[in-house]
Design a protein that fits this description.
The complex is a heterodimer of chains A (429) and B (225). Chain A is an alpha+beta fold. Chain A is built from 13 helices and 23 strands. Chain A has helices spanning 15-18, 20-31, 158-162, 167-174, 196-203, 209-212, 214-231, 236-242, 248-252, 277-299, 346-360, 367-380, 414-428; strands at 7-8, 11-13, 36-40, 49-55, 58-64, 70-74, 89-91, 96-97, 104-105, 111-113, 139-143, 146-150, 181-183, 188-192, 256-258, 264-266, 305-308, 312-315, 320-328, 331-341, 388-390, 399-401, 404-406. In chain A, the strands form five sheets. In chain A, strands 13, 14, 15, 16, 17, 18, 19, 20, 22 and 23 form a ten-stranded antiparallel beta sheet that branches. A four-stranded antiparallel beta sheet of chain A has the order 6-5-4-7, with no helix packed on it. The longest helix of chain A is centred in the last third of the chain and has 23 residues, at 277-299. The two termini of chain A are 12 Å apart. The mean pLDDT of chain A is 95. With 225 residues, chain B is of the alpha+beta class. Chain B has six helices and seven strands. Chain B has a six-stranded mixed beta sheet with strand order 2-1-6-5-4-3. In chain B, a hairpin with a 2-residue loop joins strand 4 (166-178) and strand 5 (181-195). Chain B is elongated, with a radius of gyration of 28 Å. Mean pLDDT of chain B is 86; it is low at 46-55. Classes of the chains: A alpha+beta (429), B alpha+beta (225). At the A-B interface, strand 7, strand 8, strand 14, helix 7 and helix 11 of A face helix 2, strand 2, helix 6 and strand 7 of B. Strand 14 (188-192) of chain A pairs parallel with strand 7 (217-218) of chain B, so a sheet runs across the interface.
């Protein structure tokens, strides 16, 4: 594969979104090597609690150990290859038992019992052989409760992989007076009929909202305005929707910060610090926990989304994240989670819940139009009407310091240019 | 297993010789342990649903045999609502709700409150107005492809008429055409109905439980189901 013929600094060839061979390469060189998000520790609170997760093409199990750690195993019985758990989540007790021939395994994957073991005497499949254990992910690590696994024994540490994008998890957890979040045990799953890159590009694309989401923004703005006139104020969640229809000029003033490895930040624009009694009570709790200065630092972080390239979009101020699992060149599963700030008032959770329901649920009034764009985008790229996808907007205008690209315009396509720099590095490796 | 004399027959000169011998595995006595539990009695993985879904799966109570007129009035309201949705009469749909009415689609059957936990829809009349405004806007891009629905409502049972509201449960099927594809949804409705000043039935709460609400959504839902 000649990468230089596919990716130029300001445009990419359409086949990077459509070619099955390129997709295979991505799975092999990106997903099955890098640190992939498995879930939050609070998804598996008790020993034996498990959650099935896919890393690249690999069906895996995230499982809580009796000693309290979280491990990630291949969901595969070493005997005949049958998956050990057939459900998305549950509790397996103190053992995994294969439903085919009752081989059983400790929660760390080591073999516990082989039925009628006499039949294996003299063969190489006896308990002492490590091939009789369920294979574990090469590396498992977590950051502030968020669990990641890498299927490659070598490579950067989780901390290095996340780099500056660590702020996604810091920002989420620091907003809790005890510095922790816990998962809300519901996961929305939505299948996108488009290459995973559409989603990643779209997340920091500040040029699209007022076009794509105009209908919702205007409809919400109308009700918001009426409420303000009638009652003097409107709940914040109307603004979640109306803000999408902000002017081009406003979007252009929202900066993106683009890090190595394709990670990036879209800075805040919604204004999530109203001074209502709930917020004041919450801010007082934070000040008690962290002091005035730290609290101010935490609450004034200007973040809308943080992207952990190539699969995670974290909306840390509202404690939600979307995780991509690529299925094929033109099909991507997104898993959408919400978290509670431990120790924060219920009202703060409910306020962020509105965003989860209105924007991130399967009845979203926002992503309905994004998904339509990406589907048509995927189809458009099958066309011979052109070969290139343009990322020329404000090319050459961005400020680069120490490997970090700061856009001078919110609508700069610096985001996509930066993502494809990372993509090329991964595929060239 | 229970009879050690039933050994595999001795091999002979040809496989026909083996086929000629009759071996029958007799049913094991009920006391003998078998399957995974024969290896270890603890070999019984816990089903994730057995812990959580139990509460929601209470035995349904038969509908009340109330006066025929009320039963028919309720049924006609539900049928009308289905036809209003299929006809895309969004304002008429909103008007079916009481002023404090709520349309709610939880994610799981265990949820009991429309606020405070993730929902697929959780909309009061103001939010419904926004949804209506969105799909009616000329630049609602996702509305451009051919899009139709067809609802069928059935199993209408009045559960109670006390406590200020008429509680009704029913079942629905909804087929949706979008662009060139048909999707199929099903589930149950629970309507809490009240009478307005004119005596007409209005919806105070409509709870919609999709039976496939926790499965991956292929695309999303744009309008009420």
């Amino acid at each position: 594969m000649n990468l230089t013929s596919l990716v130029e600094p300001d445009r990419v060839h359409k086949t990077v979104y459509t070619d099955p061979a390129i997709f295979e390469s991505e799975i092999e060189k990106i997903w099955e090597k890098i640190w992939v998000y498995c879930g939050h520790e609070s998804q598996v609170p008790a020993p034996g609690d498990y959650h099935a997760v896919t890393i690249g093409r690999q069906p895996m199990i995230m499982v809580r150990q009796p000693g309290g750690t979280v491990d990630v195993l291949y969901n595969r019985c070493p005997h005949r290859g049958v998956q050990l758990v057939g459900n998305l989540k549950g509790n397996t007790g103190n053992t995994f038992v294969c439903s085919y021939h009752a081989w059983s395994f400790h929660l760390d994957g080591s073999v516990r019992a082989i039925p009628l073991a006499k039949g294996y005497e003299g063969t190489r499949m006896t308990k002492e052989n490590p091939d009789c254990n369920v294979r574990r992910a090469a590396r498992v690590d977590s950051y502030r409760g968020f669990v990641f696994a890498s299927l490659a024994p070598e490579g950067p540490s989780l901390k290095d992989f996340l780099g500056e994008a660590r702020v996604a998890f810091d920002d989420m957890c620091d907003r809790s007076p005890v510095g922790e979040v816990e998962v809300v045990p519901i996961c929305h799953r939505v299948v996108q009929h488009s290459n995973w890159k559409f989603f990643m590009e779209n997340q920091l694309d500040a040029l699209h909202p007022s076009v794509t989401h105009q209908s919702t923004g205007i409809a919400a703005g109308r009700v918001e305005k009426r409420l303000k006139a009638e009652r003097g104020a409107a709940p914040l969640y109307y603004h979640y929707l109306s803000a999408f229809a902000s002017s081009f000029e406003l979007w252009d003033s929202v900066q993106t910060i683009n890090f190595p490895r394709g990670h990036g930040i879209l800075k805040a624009y919604m204004g999530l610090r109203p001074q209502d009694p709930d917020t004041l009570e919450y801010e007082a709790l934070l000040k008690q926990a962290y002091g005035e200065q730290k609290t101010e630092e935490y609450l004034s972080r200007s973040i809308h989304h943080v992207l952990v390239y190539p699969y995670l979009s974290v909306q840390s101020p509202l404690q939600q994240l979307r995780c991509l699992r690529p299925l094929s060149p033109d099909k991507t599963l997104s898993e959408i989670w919400h978290f509670r700030l431990k120790g924060a008032p219920e009202a703060i959770y409910r306020r962020s819940l509105w965003y989860y329901n209105l924007v991130n649920s399967p009845a979203t009034m926002i992503n309905a139009d994004d998904l339509e764009n990406w589907t048509k985008g995927q189809w458009g790229l099958m066309s011979n009407g052109g070969d290139w996808v343009s990322f020329h907007r404000y090319a050459g205008d961005d400020r680069v310091e120490n490997g970090v690209t700061y856009s001078n315009h919110g609508t700069s396509e610096a985001v996509m240019r930066n993502q494809f720099r990372a993509w090329t590095e991964y595929l060239a490796a | 297993m229970s009879n050690p004399t039933k050994a595999i027959p001795t091999a002979g000169p040809s496989f026909e010789h083996l086929l000629a011998q009759d071996v029958v595995i007799e049913g094991t006595p009920g006391t003998a342990r078998t399957g995974a539990q024969a290896i270890d009695p603890q070999h019984s993985p816990v089903s994730p649903l057995s812990r959580s879904a139990g509460a929601a799966r209470t035995l349904p109570k038969p509908g009340l045999i109330v006066d025929v007129a009320l039963q028919r009035e309720v049924e006609q309201l539900l049928y009308l609502q289905a036809e209003i949705l299929d006809g895309k009469h969004w304002q008429a749909f909103i008007d079916l709700f009481a002023d404090d009415g709520v349309y709610w689609m939880p994610v799981t059957p265990e949820q009991t409150e429309w606020e405070g936990s993730p929902s697929i829809f959780a909309e009061d009349k103001l939010m419904m107005e926004i949804r209506k405004g969105r799909v009616s806007h000329p630049n609602a891009w996702s509305q451009a492809p051919m899009w139709e629905t067809n609802h069928v409502v059935s199993h209408v049972a009045i559960e109670s008429t006390t406590g200020g509201a008429i509680q009704v449960r029913s079942r629905f099927h909804m087929m949706e055409l979008r662009r060139d594809d048909v999707r199929h949804f099903g589930g149950s409705y629970r309507h809490a109905l009240v009478r307005d000043a004119t005596g007409a039935l209005r919806i105070r709460l409509q709870r919609v439980d999709l039976f496939n609400g926790q499965a991956p959504f292929d695309y999303v839902l744009q309008i009420w189901v």
